[in-house]
Amino acid sequence: MTVRLLDFYADWCGPCKTQDPILEDVQEELGDAFELQKVDVDEEQDVANQYQVRSLPTLIVENDDGVVDRFVGVTQKEDITAAISEAGA
Description:
Distance between the termini: 7 Å
Number of helices: 3
Structural class: alpha+beta
Keywords: Disulfide bond, Electron transport, Redox-active center, Transport
Strand content: 25-35%
Protein name: Thioredoxin 1
Order of helices and strands: EHEHEEH
Low-confidence stretches: none
Radius of gyration: 12 Å
Pfam family, one: Thioredoxin
Oligomer: single chain
Organism: Halorubrum alkaliphilum
GO molecular function: protein-disulfide reductase activity
């Protein structure tokens, strides 16, 4: 099962910059258990609309069955890793 974490962000978004080191920690801890996809909402508005992203940062955890979890705002490492594990990683 493929588990993806989509990080919807923008370069001008302050909280998004706060989220980045947390995501790096998650990636360091879980390694290849999931795939991190960064989505710049300014460049990929169609993808943001598809996932109905209205606030930044938004993190979406999905697997082959679809969206498993969604976080809006800066999200802590423990919550992200739990959602990734729940998704099947």
